[in-house]
Amino acid sequence: MKVVLQKDVLNLGDAGDVKEVADGYARNFLIPRRLAVRANDGNTKMALHQKKLAGLKREKRVKVMKDLAAQIDGKTYEVTVKVGENQKLFGSVTGNDVVNAIRKTGVEIDKRKLEIADTIKNLGEYKVKVRLAEGVVPQILVKVVAEA
Q1: Which site among 52, 62, 102, 130 is 20 to 30 Å from 76 CA-CA?
Q2: Could you tell me the CATH superfamily of domain 2-62?
Q3: How far are the Cα atoms of 51, 75, 133 from residue 62, in angstroms, in the given order?
Q4: Among 106, 113, 102, which Cα is nearest to 79's?
Q5: Does domain 73-146 have CATH number 3.10.430.100?
Q6: pLDDT confidence band for 7 (50 / 70 / 90)
Q7: SS3 146
Q8: DSSP alpha helices (H): ranges in the chain?
């Protein structure tokens, strides 16, 4: 059965794609969950239109994220933490701490966009990737310093 995908479906396709799937898969899974509709002339035209609009939205979003990436790429952000004896941190530096440091400069970023390689449990400098959009991944430097 030919279906037009309404939403992105893992291992099948993106919204707006016209796919040939097994009848049972379409009737029992895709259509009841509103992930797809049967392909006919009207639905196919509508899907192509939706795909075009989604592409335009994606391009606009990437442009905005590239502007944001230019603001933060390569910059150093300082996170102040409490330390105990032997300069050991109480806990660790989280994505929330890094976002708060970035927020102080007037830039808003979602903490889920941060890609921290290892847990930050010591003082020092750490490279953190910020995955803003597809293909837009600036890198920032997080400097962890002890509270005075």
Answers
A1: 62
A2: Ribosomal protein L9, N-terminal domain (3.40.5.10)
A3: 16, 20, 6
A4: 102
A5: yes
A6: confident
A7: strand
A8: 23-25, 41-72, 95-103
Mean pLDDT across the chain, nearest whole number?
89
pLDDT of residue 51 exceeding 90, the answer is: no
Question: Which two structure tokens, joined as six digits, stand for 136?
Answer: 């837009």
Residue listed under structure tokens 């400097």: 143
Please state, in angstroms and as integers, the Cα–Cα distance from residue 136 to each residue in 52, 65, 66, 67, following that order. 21, 7, 6, 10
The CA–CA distances, whole Å, from 29 to 14, 37, 50 equal: 16, 11, 22
CA atoms of 14 and 104, how far apart (whole Å): 38
Span 90-119, average pLDDT: 90
Per-domain boundaries in the chain: 2-62, 73-146
